[in-house]
Design a protein that fits this description.
Layout (H helix, E strand, L loop, with lengths): L10 H32 L10 H7 L5 H16 L2 H7 L5 H7 L8 H7 L5 H11 L15
Amino acid sequence: MTIRAFSHLANQALLRRLEEEAAHQCVSDATLLALIAEVDLRRLYLPEGYASMCAYCVHKLRLSKQAALKRIKAARAARQFEAILDAVAAGRLHLTGVVMLAPHLTRENAEELLAAATHKTKAEIERLLAQRFPQPDVPTSVQAMAP
């Protein structure tokens, strides 16, 4: 496929096609997370000769290490909170958002926190988390350590 394959489309048709492909990508991302979660749970990477799910994703699936780690973290979170898969598939939550939210999700707050993060950018999710889970201030003084 080439970029020129779409040069014949009128502007509105091109935009519609782009939106359709983005929606398909969201569904594909959610499906990939569900598959990674199940393979990880069953540890099927071991009989395939890989020491970890990350190694499997990098070497067998040809993902970058960063992409593999992000998807594995998101898949593990989705295994605990299946609503994540629905949110990703529907395009309400991106993978980076899932990874950011995952450490803060509990049975008590997952539904509400996922809803609050709907259609938010990374920066907006950072602010959301900072408001809901404030971190202690960093000490203002720096002390030299003895050699």
